[in-house]
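To: structure desk
From: M.T.
Subject: fold request, one chain
Message: Could you run this one when you get a chance? Sequence is below, nothing fancy, just the single chain.
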Amino acid sequence: MHYPDTTAALRALPLFSALEQPAHTLIADSGRLQAYTTGETVYTAADAADTLYFILRGRVRVARASGAKTMIVDFYGPGEMLGCCALMNADCMPCSARACAPTEALLVPRAALTAAIQSSGPLGLRLTQLLTAKLSSAHGRMEQLALDNVDKR
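Reply: Done. Structure tokens follow.
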């Protein structure tokens, strides 16, 4: 599905569906829609961590490189958020992201999301719940890698 504007895109994302009007307007006015072709870079490691990416359609692979090796961190699809380090006031992205399929995303500047959180208590709570779930999932994957044998993984 193609979204005609940021307002329509916000309404499609569960995180923002019940957002109060002032916060909704702030994010809609500050955000922008971005389309990516398959294989196109969404962001690279060391890019400024000042934007959150909300996937509207498509799929994005996040990976981290070290020398000649690359580790896939995760895949993200519709309704999911990536670039979470922007919420933590990180200076730069620790990983790179690349579209695995034609992808459309809503890009929201950290400053706009921070202002919306300050004006909307429920948004801050929903973001905290989302980040907690992501952390729990990451811990589960680390446990699997550390404790399970290769056949079981």
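Reply (cont.): The mean pLDDT is 83. Let me know if you need anything else for the meeting.
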